[in-house]
Design brief:
Layout: H1 4-22, H2 36-49, E1 53-57, H3 63-75, E2 78-83, H4 86-98, E3 105-109, H5 112-118, E4 125-128, H6 135-145, E5 152-156, H7 162-174, E6 178-183, E7 189-194
Parallel strand pairs: 1-2, 1-4, 2-3, 4-5
Antiparallel strand pairs: 5-7, 6-7
Helix pairs in contact: 1-3, 2-3, 5-6
Organism: Acinetobacter tjernbergiae DSM 14971 = CIP 107465
Keywords: Methyltransferase, S-adenosyl-L-methionine, Transferase
GO molecular function, one term: O-methyltransferase activity
Length: about 200
């Protein structure tokens, strides 16, 4: 069960991140964390699906990472998170330590495409929340990581940045082995599963 202490601390952190983003005129300087409702839904999915192996592509400062780690803690799982920006990854690790969740998270720094090309073991849940221009190039590697029954891919920002993910969503729709749907939660989540 998610503790009241966790919920209060994560709410405070979310407010802190939102205030930071509001002060930044340059998009790349913003933390651009997932919305609170989206993060909560992901944590619920981890629990209901018993997702022991979770991959997050795009750590940023670790807001969603904390939600995922809190959820896998309840079922004895692990989170693998990828972030290209070493400073952001270090920030996320610091928050994980503050929340006492660092032992549930493996922080990987580098280009996600490199990690995805080398990874072979399937994940139960994958959150894709990175630079949207790379998504199409990730698809073949993502498919090999979604091969176990019940594996789920969640893509963030599909409503708020629909033009930027259009080609990627069309690629998924065209693949007869997968089905997908758009969930109007937060900035819009696309849920993808094997048929």
């Amino acid at each position: 069960m998610t503790s009241i202490v966790f919920l209060q601390r994560i709410a405070d952190l979310y407010d802190e991140f939102k205030q930071h983003d509001a002060r930044q005129s340059d998009r790349l300087r913003r933390y651009r964390n997932i919305e609170a409702e989206s993060a909560k839904l992901l944590a619920m999915l981890v629990r209901t699906q018993q997702s022991k192996r979770v991959l997050e592509i795009g750590t940023s400062t670790g807001y969603s990472t904390l939600w995922l780690a809190e959820a896998v803690k309840a079922i004895g799982g692990q989170v693998q998170t990828l972030e290209i920006n070493a400073f952001r990854s270090a920030q996320a690790k610091k928050y994980a330590e503050e929340f006492g969740l660092e032992n549930l998270i493996d922080f990987w720094v580098g280009d996600a495409s490199v990690y995805l090309q080398q990874a072979h073991e399937p994940f139960d849940l994958i959150l894709l929340d990175a630079e949207r221009g790379s998504y199409v190039s990730y698809w073949n590697d993502l498919k090999k990581l979604l091969q176990s029954s019940g594996s789920t891919l969640i893509v963030d920002n599909v409503i708020s940045h629909s033009a930027e993910v259009k080609d990627f969503l069309e690629l998924i729709k065209a693949d007869e082995n997968y089905m997908s749907t758009i969930l109007p939660v937060g900035a819009g989540l696309c849920m993808v599963v094997l048929k």
